[in-house]
Amino acid sequence: MSNFKIVIASDHAGFKLKGLIFDFLKEKNYYIVDVGVNTGESVDYPIFALKLVEKIIYEKFTYGILICGTGVGMAIVANKFPGIRAANCSNSYTAKMSRMHNNANILCIGERVVGDGMAKDIVDVFLSTNFEGGRHSNRVKLIDEVAIKYWNEFLGGK
Ligand code: RB5
Question: Of the CATH numbers 3.40.1400.10, 3.40.50.2300, 1.20.1050.10, 1.10.3130.10, which one belongs to the domain with range 5-155?
Answer without folding.
Answer: 3.40.1400.10
